Fold this protein.
Amino acid sequence: MKRKDKREHDRVYMEIAVAMTAGLLDATVEDVTGDGRSARTVLARQVAMYVAAVGFGMSYSRVGAALGRDRSTVAHAIRIIEDRREDPAFDEWLNALELTAAAAPVLR
């Protein structure tokens, strides 16, 4: 796949991850993709990064590029979400999101 095509696919994966998490966490897509700092927005952004990396198999660098963030920001977000998985209810919810993303009929 050409680099331009890969970037376009990454952008689509990120849009799906952001839309899913924004909708489920009652945040706006604009806040999640922007610089919103409310707890709900930050959580939605972190979960979107996690879903893109784990559910869609994107590297941290690709997630960061698709969301306009640095790779280290993505790594930090994923560590935060992994720590939250200690909560069984959150873990179950996140597992459902991962499975949904992994099952999406998106070209790889």
In short: The chain has a mean pLDDT of 92. The chain has six helices and no strands. The CA atoms of residues 32 and 42 lie 7 Å apart.
